[in-house]
Amino acid sequence: xxxxxxxxxxxxxxxxxxxxxxxxxxxxxxxxxxxxxxxxxxxxxxxxxxxxxxxxxxxxxxxxxxxxxxxxxxxxxxxxxxxxxxxxxxxxxxxxxxxxxxxxxxxxxxxxxxxxxxxxxxxxxxxxxxxxxxxxxxxxxxxxxxxxxxxxxxxxxxxxxxx
Length: 163
What we know:
Layout: H1 6-71, H2 73-81, H3 83-89, H4 92-97, H5 105-110, H6 119-122, H7 127-131, H8 135-162
Helix pairs in contact: 1-8, 2-3
């Protein structure tokens, strides 16, 4: 076998440098892949948060509009006199459909009635207080009581989103 020449040593150095550069490139590729995966996870989380925030904003806007209905005397009279007609005309059914089914149960219950129900049917916890109201004022008091129950239902839903 011949003695190695300077060309052999140069070739060996070149091969070692090429291998080192290849390994360094592989290391950079793995690092870049990990950074890419982490960036994807962060962007997916950001998308989820933005989507949830958008949904929460929509729901709060719907609740704000429903609350405005309860504060408008004409609208609340319509809602309470003929609930199922007024719910359709004022778009309340559509708004309720956009909210989770587990919320605004008093609103959902009221939408089933063709005329103003007895307050005891909507809010049985107030049956005792209705018993002490004179008969000629009872219907007016029931309207007020149901309107307050509707407002409280909205406040509970808003509080649930804000907390």
